[in-house]
């Protein structure tokens, strides 16, 4: 790894850990692969890339005991959009990379690729199978008032504020150059999905 690859990105990174895990039936962030909670794996990946990494969660004590910097929702009870607003509003950097707490196969090459596109954009978001991936994307500070406006109107769709922002959609032809298999987007909403993640992880850690 050369010095450029080792250099940390001048942005922030946030892990959203406020979900109810209804389909999983237990806290997704604490699911373990090889005895390591998935949120720890995610934080380790992001910690090698960003100086400012924090968790957005209302159950702060759980994550603080693990040594994480934790921020509670500014507007609680607004699902993932509330967590996104908190991440954007709290981040120290001009942009923040936002990930879900159940995505332990994030690929650094993908994150760096997305980061290379942040200039002049408020949202840099991958598109997979024609759908955006809002929990594997960068957001600029300019998004905060637009997200807050959506929350005030009860519009909690994660991309509902995009019409008011400068959005760079990163199509598959580009992001697959950085993550050919789309491993970064694998998340553990169900036990079956978590088993798939564990199977993929047996092939080695993200490069």
General description of the model:
With 207 residues, the chain is an alpha/beta fold. The chain has a single domain, classed as Spore Coat Polysaccharide Biosynthesis Protein SpsA, Chain A, CATH 3.90.550.10. Helices cover 31% and strands 21% of the residues. Strands 1, 4, 5, 6, 7, 8, 9 and 10 form an 8-stranded mixed beta sheet that branches. A hairpin with a 2-residue loop joins β7 and β8. The longest helix has 12 residues. It is globular, with a radius of gyration of 16 Å.
CATH architecture: Alpha-Beta Complex
Number of domains: 1
Q: Give a short account of the largest sheet.
A: 8 strands, mixed
CATH superfamily: Spore Coat Polysaccharide Biosynthesis Protein SpsA, Chain A
Q: Roughly what fraction of the amino acids lie in strands?
A: 15-25%
How many runs of DSSP E, i.e. beta strands? 10
CATH class descriptor name: Alpha Beta
């Amino acid at each position: 790894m050369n010095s450029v690859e080792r250099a940390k990105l001048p942005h922030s990174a946030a892990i959203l850990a406020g979900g109810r895990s209804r389909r999983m039936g237990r806290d997704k962030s604490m699911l373990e692969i090889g005895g390591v909670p998935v949120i720890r794996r995610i934080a380790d990946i992001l910690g090698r890339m960003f100086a400012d990494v924090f968790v957005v969660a209302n159950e702060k004590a759980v994550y603080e005991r693990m040594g994480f910097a934790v921020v509670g929702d500014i507007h609680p009870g607004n699902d993932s959009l509330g967590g996104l607003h908190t991440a954007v509003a709290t981040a120290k950097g001009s942009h923040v990379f936002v990930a879900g707490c159940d995505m332990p196969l994030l690929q650094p090459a993908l994150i760096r690729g997305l980061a290379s596109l942040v200039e002049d954009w408020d949202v840099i978001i991958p598109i997979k199978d024609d759908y955006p991936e809002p929990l594997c994307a960068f957001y600029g500070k300019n998004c905060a008032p637009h997200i807050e406006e959506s929350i005030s109107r009860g519009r909690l769709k994660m991309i509902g504020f995009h019409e008011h922002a400068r959005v760079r959609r990163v199509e598959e032809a580009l992001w697959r150059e950085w993550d050919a298999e789309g491993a970064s987007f694998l998340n553990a909403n169900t036990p079956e999905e978590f088993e798939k993640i564990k199977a993929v992880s047996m092939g080695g850690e993200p490069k």
